[in-house]
Amino acid sequence: MAKGPDPAGNEDRVILGPGWFGVVDGATDKSGMRYGGRSSGVIAAEAVAECLAQAPGDREPGLLVSDMTDALAERLERFGADPNAPTRPAAVVVCFSPSQRLLLRVGDCAYHWAGSPNAPQKLIDRINAEARAALLQALIAGGADHGELRASDPGRQMIMPLLREQGNFQNHLDHPLGFGAIDGRPVPDRYVEVTQLEGTGDLVLASDGYPTLLPELAASEQALARALGEDPLRIGTLRGTKGIAPGAASFDDRSYLRLRLRAEGGATGHESPATPGGRP
Asked: pTM (2 decimals)?
């Protein structure tokens, strides 16, 4: 589900097998560049998702990351994008192979398994979120109007230079602010997370549009709505690098995929925000 009124602007993608199931989240564009009329997040998500949708279930995770990297590199070359710009198109991904019982993740997508969520946040994102929240809280303390702050978001304007340049930390192996993403360049092993899942149960894969990821879609949606109602500027417990823009439904695109893992290693079923409650 797109954060705004235009579904074409959705920078998330959901992959439903046959070899891999997953969620891809294109990085929010900060450059203003357009590639064939689409944002950098859209073309990155499309390239990675198309590669993942065609991958065989027995593809070794490291090779699959290389495949997705190459697919995006080819897409960037086609559009003439600078592969070394800090605002280069990029995407993060979490995916699962039923045949291997392997969970693969690069970046900050989330998953829920064995009764608990796993939703990492980049250190650079925490730094930006804290700085943005501090400025907006200071303006509110000085009497600023909440509605005007939501419309203009001076906190995001303040951190935008760092948001544009933080791509220099992306796939940077040795920097403490480094983080991983699929951006057309090799992804260091430290940013490739591979987890073997044992047992049966429901596995949820999601983009970071869900600040609270729960085992049921309806509960995750309710938690999101409640949090946004309490903190629409996202400067309190929900603090982040952006709030809810005027006319938007949420602060970010969101995708939710639930798989039921069987004892013999298969996976069935999914839920999506377009069909609350899911279907068999």
From this structure: 0.91
Amino acid (1-letter code) at residue 68: M
172 burial (CB, 10 Å; 0-12 / 13-18 / 19+) is middle
**CA proximity to 114, closest of 198, 196, 194, 195:** 198
| Token couple for 263 | 């004892």
Window from 4-8, 206-210, 213-217 with minimum mean pLDDT: 4-8
Report residue 178 as tokens.
């480094």
d(CA 166, CA 179): 10
Please, are residues 216 and 222 in contact by the beta-carbon 8 Å criterion? Answer: no
Contacts of 236 (CB under 8 A, 6+ apart): 133, 230
Whether the Cβ atoms of residue 197 and residue 207 lie closer than 8 Å to each other = no
Q: What is the C-alpha to C-alpha distance for residues 231 and 84, in angstroms, rounded to an integer? A: 36
Dist CA 279 CA 236 (whole Å): 35
- Of 182, 151, 152, 155, which Cα lies nearest the Cα of 167? 182
Computed over every residue of the chain, the mean pLDDT equals: 92
Q: Specify the 3-state DSSP secondary structure of 103.
A: strand
Cis peptide before 5, with omega less than 30 degrees from 0? no
pLDDT at 273 over 60: no
Radius of gyration (Cα) for the chain, nearest Å?
Answer: 18
Listed in sequence order, the residues at least 6 apart from 158 whose beta carbon sits closer than 8 Å to its beta carbon are 131, 132, 135
In eight-state DSSP terms, residue 158 is H
pLDDT score for 30: 87
Is beta strand 116-118 parallel, antiparallel or unpaired with respect to 256-261?
Answer: unpaired
